[in-house]
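Notes to self after the Tuesday call (sharing in case useful).
The group wants a holo model before anyone commits to mutagenesis around the pocket. I volunteered. Ligand is D-xylose. Logging inputs and output together so the record is complete.
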Amino acid sequence: MKQFFEGIPKIKYEGEDSRNPLAFRHYNPDEVVLGKRMEEHLRFAVAYWHSFAWEGGDPFGGQTFERPWYPQDNMERAKLKADIAFDMFDILGAPYFCFHDLDVRPEAGSFAENRDTLNEITDYFAEKMAAGGPKLLWGTANMFTHRRWMSGASTNPDPDVFAFAAATVKSCMDATHKLGGENYVLWGGREGYETLLNTDLTSELDHMGRFLNMVVEYKHKIGFKGAILVEPKPQEPSKHQYDYDVATCFGFLQKYGLEKEVQLNIEQGHAILAGHSFEHEIATAASLGVLGSIDMNRNDYQSGWDTDQFPNNTPEVAVAYYHILKAGGLKTGGTNFDAKVRRQSLDAEDLVAAHVGGMDICARGLKAAAAMLEDGGLEEALSSRYEGWQTPEAKAMLGSDFESITKRVLAEEIAPDPRSGRQEILENYVNRFV
Ligand code: XLS
Ligand code: NI
Ligand code: NI
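Result:
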């Protein structure tokens, strides 16, 4: 154990009455919920990017944190960062972690050097993982920070950037595969535009579609068994991003023949930026058959930015897990905290406490969701609301046509009798569980 987390013990489950701020009050990995251990339902992952690579900057000011692995520009400090990150995974008992290439190795400028340092650091990870460390939920490429990506990666007007992006994603898929990663993520922060005045929308989308097909072809070629996940977000950093939301992504996947090959990684904050709720995005993805994984970080509702805060709202988390459980639960996906502590939260203890709180609120939400499902009140309300569609006449109608329906409306003098949607009653019902 390095000095960095000195004095911070391994976090334990102490139950609801515990007053210890560094204990789980709800997250009890072995507790069985709906026939499955909590750990297997939630599949928590710590995000290397925000917890170990982000330095506390905002649009008006730079680094606030002081960490022994700064500046993040050489391999010696990259390894120190890895030592400390794996210490925290152990303190939390986190079963998974995830990373971007740029989080874990220095940026060299040349592709060959970036690939070699990525290979070196991921070999270092492999040793730690073999020695009892967590598993890899997903790997990904950061194709948005370096200036080469400013006009996009696969959608860049310059084919050399497309080529650099292809080589970069290949190297990250190789590293993810080597580490037994369970998914590979693509988030296109700069796959979009700043102004349509300089943008050939049609060819950019075609290039992005071809690029994603190459990802899938390469996955099959190397025998990567994990899921390929695209992460929707409407904007930020680009003014407009092509992967706007779940529905937009699904249309894109269908157009390029990928809807059976690619699933989605849905982030709470991105759902809010798109003008949706998290559960809307989850339920939509589930209904379209593309629910992959979740990034469980919330936005500040006042700021309108993707503030990437740790979750802290039980009702929101509970309805999200309700839709996940209803869809059969997370398969290769997990609950990733793509979240960062506030820039004034300088201490190692802040970093640990943020994850402890996030894991605990998710466990609490999961238990509430499971209790709702077990009680079955929402399912009953739903089947009663749609029961009319169970009649043979209603089912037959879907196979008929406007003329015959009109005849039936006249013959049977159909005059609909509106029924209450019972929204408040259902909201009150949910509040019994959260
Ligand atoms: C940024 C995204 C990013 C992805 C991975 O807003 O959430 O963190 O999850 O590139
Ligand atoms: Ni985000
Ligand atoms: Ni994310």
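Two things stood out.
Residues 284 and 313 are 22 Å apart (CA to CA).
Residues 49, 100, 140, 185, 187, 231, 233, 267, 295, 306, 338 surround D-xylose (ligand 1) (CB under 6 Å).
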